[in-house]
């Protein structure tokens, strides 16, 4: 007879039990009553922090939206209860801090999924020729559905369901979109030109973007005036609220939240042993105050030494030509925990690589941070702006990955700007500097702060040359003052 080891939990400890027959099953973590030294606990806890940080981030966001009573404005931020969606009606406000590294080429929306409560209906309007995409991401920040202009997605109603849903597609619904996790997000992005005419023209189609529980579905298109949302009372800001992005992961609470994540998010193929290690670690901490202290100390250390350095865009993805770098598997991470963590920290909610290419630059050719103490130019040769079916942009961020205030209130430039001036040979030169340039260059000026800054090129609807990396940005040239 072959021995199979199964397991049960008793008093927070993982207990191995013999079965009577079957194939041998190897343990997926420390076996029953194994003594866990602090050094081993520290090693596993550090890996757990790297693995779990993005998932805890999403869990905390869901918890926040579970407190939202109605669709409305929380300061400059549109919010909605879980399983509903709130839209902006213009570019994102520069003072918003709920997510770092946004852009000002699209009108955003955001909805938090809680699919264990109920499936939801996603309402997709007819956008005509306008470029658009809806990001649907699970708790791992992986994309799980293709809903965008580039896929030829027809307008209509779409049903988003969780991993355990077993119902039938309702009449009038185009398709069922299944998330592998109950927690997730839906983020519409709709291109808008930086003109008064397009700000007006986009409003009717924005009003038809909606998400709501399946129980509210009646087959009729619902419309919402996103320009006139009710204002919700702001909670009292904590005195120690950081200047950057809202803190969604708190080291002191991390391992308590991770225990819940492990019970709610099923492992990917091959992750079973990781789950076993993490569960054994948390069980040991619950049974031993010394191990519990190791977890708390490791969480604090990991936040500072592991996560914080990944905020730098130069640590995000792969270094390519001319000093730029980029990820090649955004929103399709699999077991690439490093890239998933780096993006979650610096630029969370990236679209799938087939939908958007992100290219980053925050250092000059000598490895020094870009600074408004210098002037820079970026020149695209004739016909060699980013090759896209949608649009492209160059956005400038301060050291916290938010917009830097400037005299012309411009934070990005590209397709949305209709007054860019091309050179006589057809090339396009952008001027990135703090001091206002000569008047004939202002249309191509991207104002920089006096301090450090970073640059991001976004290419929506990237060509295969962009997706594969055959197209790369030109060099950033530092001028002399």
UniProtKB/TrEMBL annotation:
Record InterPro entries: DUF1214, DUF1214_C_sf, DUF1254, DUF1254_sf
Keyword Signal (UniProt): yes
Residue intervals of the DUF1214 domain: 355-464
Signal sequence bounds: 1-21
Alphabetical keyword list: Signal
Pfam families membership: DUF1214, DUF1254
Repeat as UniProt keyword: no
Residue ranges of domain DUF1254 in the record: 82-213
Gene3D superfamilies per UniProt: Domain of unknown function DUF1214, C-terminal domain, Domain of unknown function DUF1254
Cross-referenced PANTHER family: BLL3101 PROTEIN (PTHR36509)
Name assigned to this protein: DUF1254 domain-containing protein
Species annotation: Pseudomonas kielensis
